[in-house]
Structures are given as structure tokens and as C-alpha cells.
């Protein structure tokens, strides 16, 4: 249950009891040795491979129905139970399931769940592996039995929440770590999570921040809620310092934020990170600070407000619970009141070229304000800030109106507040204020403009903040490192002897290998010259060398080339090994004063082994390969003219689809040769007329087939390139 306390802490104000719980978790979350993990790992992915990181569209494409709270009526251990799940949790489940590879089923589909005294590990297998087809690992041997039944069908997106509650009843925790659900005890999951972060060597650095004031344990709890994803913080009480593990680009802003919190005194205050739903955090923070500056309020009653743009939240520090609660309510009202003010904002890009995405975004979002004139002039709705989970300050205390911030006041008249005016009540002991907000929110329509800034690699967005958030979510989902494909190609020429009369594909099938032409859905029909075959072997990993060894046992195999190519997604890579042969393309003759001038136009053509590959990576880690393979040679023409050579070539042009790490075989280009070999007695065979008596000419017929084996490997992170490089070196060093 410690993991749940962290999530509650991030969305609610920090209470002293929660600090103790959080410190307990931080204290046991250090990196421990392998002896700390009890039990044997059990892996159940139910998939051939674990997909790499692609575009995470779960949060961007989630339908609006996914944000509606869902109630589950169930019977657990013969006791009726009502489970209420907020829309945010269902949306979070959808994002986690997408990361865990659960894309086989529609998450909105309704299913029924029923178990009667079944083993816990069986329940996990049926829910995660069966109903969701998600990747998961049970770090511990799960003990216990489960009786659970839903009274009515529930969406698949609700299953992770139900399973977490079932596991919690037996003392287990489920958490998504690096795209895999990890299930085990709280201590085991804490070790796995920290070791997963620590294992990303080269991508994270350690930074120690010494604190001049405040307690490291208290400040660590605050910093943990605003750190970038993947970063960790560990307090060291003996030296009153914080140990940060985070990306190098985040070191400077995070350390500056920590020092600012210490200097402002927030380290010794009650602190909460309050999300801002509709407006810009900087704008809301400015309005609140302006309001408190205009009031005759003691400095101790003024909270510390820091906008967190990346987290879309405000960091609020206060001396008392009541001041913190007042600030929370005021933020809620200002958040709704200022949401539709259009402004110019900037979205920095890390990987995408701004010019490429700006036109697409303008085409999608630019029309949102176009139809504003056709809509009703004013549609409004009323929003009321409600703090039902907080205790009432004093039921008998009287009201005391105070001026509202200028940003939410009306200019209708002196002393007359707008419908967004906020009324405040005095507190019980300290005289602070508790605002209640009743806001009428106008709905406006404004056009959107998105301009690329190529110099700073950023997008300039002019829109309301609600529209800006939507655009930013889409950009963040698309702004990923450009994936690459490492292509291992082996080009061989096979002599078709007696055992290979019908070609390589027929021979491999006869030897028991499953070789099928144009296997759908993995291999597409080639649509060009040559044939396409893909082979699957039922045991272990396999490479192109496996097929080569099988062929070398029955015939002569000549490896023409074995290149490794690395190419960006959607770009073309071309390998040419051979010569450039000049040939005549055009000849003109001009006669002037009895003199004829001949002009030749010469072009150069590549001859030899030429391989051109254009990959296109799909979301499921399969690769569409557009392949142009040529093996050619030049021979002098019969008339002896070197400028008009004869080009002999064998080509394969094909479009295929293959999974990352799998090998496809392209073949079927069979060439018949009729070579005449003349042998004779030296000198005597050259004598005119009589020489034919001392030599003989034999005709040798042969058939060869050009075979190309290609293995693409999708690379989405730099570390994967290093792993493939080590794999290649290992193969080269193997005799």
C-alpha cells in the first residue's frame, strides 16, 4: 500500500502522517543486491518479442468516455463490494496497457470476471495474460486463493485496478516498469524499480545537493513529486543532502529548483503540488501573487507559489493547513476563469524538424476556430470549487468579504463583483481566509496558428491554453528519437546441383524447414522480379549462417557480399561494391569546311554488387523493406568497341514486411550458363590446320541461383546500437 500513498501524496496536500509513510518508502528504496529479491522470476509475455518504444498514443487518442468514472459491483470472498474508479485512473490504465503491449483487444470492450477459490497465480495469468495479453513478470511465487465475481460486465481498462486490489489483499504490489508489469512484494518491487533506473548506465548521472537549511527527508518528499520521469531522489540524513539520479540535461534545472525551495523556506513548510487543468500555471501563479500583494495580510499568511510548467501544476508552500487549503480553492477558481485567453507559447522540440510537423498541426488544429461564427454567441457553464474531502474550518464563524484578484473582477461598477467573484470566510484561529468560488465560464472560439522556428528547433503556438495543451500532448507523443534499422544482408550464389534442381526454396522445404512464399501477414507479395521466401525454425535463435551451412553440405556456395547497413526510418541506404564502367549514350557528327567532328556523350554506370534498401518501421516493430538488389558485370561487345559494353545483370526489386530480428530469404533468380572449355597440347594445339588434332572443346552447362538473406533490427535507442555492435563483433570473432 506504500505505492498508493505516493500517488495520493502527489495530488493532495502534505500531512505529517503522510511524511512518515513516504519516508518509510524512501528509506527502503535504495539499490540492493540480488539477495534482496526472494523467489524465482516467472515470465509470461505471451508474445514472440517485447516491442520497443514507439509513439505512445494512449493518452492522446483516448475517447472521452475513458474519462468517465466507472463503478464496479463485485463479490470478493462472498462479501458484496462496490469499487469506484475515477476517470483519471482508467485513463492511466489505458496508457500503461499500451506500454505493456496490450494492443490485441479493445480496452472499452465489456467482459465478465468470475473466479471461485482459484490460485492467485492462475488469476493473474488469466487477467493479464488472457484478457489483456499484457507483458508481466511475477517476481515472487504468488501464494493465496481468490474468489471474485463481477455482477455486471466491466471494461477491460478496469482490469488492472481490480487486479491491484486483489493483489493488495494478499500483500502484493503490481507496478509497470519499463513496459512490463512487475508483481511481487512491496520490498521486491522497490528494489526492481530502483535497479531498473540504476541499470540505465550512460543515460543517467548522480548529483549530490547539500542543503543549508531544512530536513533532507522532508524536502525529498517534495522533490520526488516534481522530478522528471525516470529520475529518483534519495535523502541522506547524516549529511543533510539529497542524492539525485537523473538525465544530464535535467541536472541544472532540478538543482536550481531545490536551492530555490531551500532559500524560500519551503523546506520547512507544508508543501503541495496542485495540478492546473485549464490555464497556464505561470498565469495563475501571477494572479494569485498579485492578489496577495494587494491585500493587507501578514507575511506569514502568504503562501509560496511556484509555477511548474512541465508538470502543469503549481508548487504551493504554506505555514498552516488552512492557508494551504485557501490557496488550493483560489487556484481552482482562477484556473477555470482564465482558461480561454489566447497567447503565444513555445513548444521546444528535441527530435522532430519543426517545419515537418508545423504544417500537419496547422492542417489539423488550424480549423478549430474557423467555424466560430456559426456557433451560438455564448454558451456557458457554471463550475463550483468543492473541497468535500477537507474538514470545515468553523461552522459558527461569520463571513467576511474581501476584494478578489483583479483578474477575476468585473468592471460593471464600483464594489460590484462579477459572477466569478470569490467570497472568503475567516478561519477558526489564525484569521486566514477560506475562499469559495462560483465561476461562470464563457466558452470562446479562437483561431490557432502554429509557426516553425527552425533556428531554435521549436514551434511557436498562438492558441488558448486548452488548445495549447492538446497540441502539446500530440507533439510530445510524436517527438521521439528517429528510429533506425540495422540491416544484415548476405548475398550468396548457389550452384544448383542434382539436389537443387528446383531451387533453394524447394530444397529447404524438403529438409524440413518451413519455407513459404509471400507469407501473410508478415511477408507481402513482392510485385517485382524474383521470389520471396521467409523461413521459420521451431528451435532457438537462427541466422543466415544456418542456411549457408545447410547448403554447403550439398553444393558449392559462394558468398558474394555480407554487408551491414544502418539507415534511418524512411531513408534509403545504398551499397555499391564494384567498378564504374563508361558507355556511349549519344554520338553526333558535324562537318565544317570538309572536316568531320565527332562528339561522344559518355555516362558512367555502376557495375558489381549494388544493394539499395529503404526501410519503414511500423508501430509493432515490423519493418517494410523496399529492396533493390543487383549483381552485374560488363563484357566487351562482339565488335570490340569498349564504349558499348554488354551489361549482364541479375536484379531483385521487392517490397516485403518482416518483424525485427527475423530473417527473410529472397531468391528465385536462376541463371543458366553454357561455358565452352578448350584444352590442348601446348604449342602443337596452336599450329594452323594441324592444331585441331591436338585440342578438344568441351561444353559445360551449369545453373546458379542468386540468394539474398536480409535480417533487419529496429533500433529506437542509442543503447540498442551498442548492443548490436557487440553482437556483430562477437560473430566476427567466432571461428
From TrEMBL:
Residues 368-439 are annotated as: Disordered. The keyword Signal applies. The keyword Protein transport applies. Pfam families: Secretin (PF00263), Secretin_N (PF03958). It is found in: Cell outer membrane. Residues 207-261, 345-484 form the NolW-like domain. Residues 550-716 form the Type II/III secretion system secretin-like domain. Its main location: membrane. Residues 1-19 form the signal peptide. Residues 393-423 have a biased composition (Polar residues). Belongs to the bacterial secretin family. GSP D subfamily. PANTHER family: PROBABLE GENERAL SECRETION PATHWAY PROTEIN D, SECRETIN XPSD. This is General secretion pathway protein D.
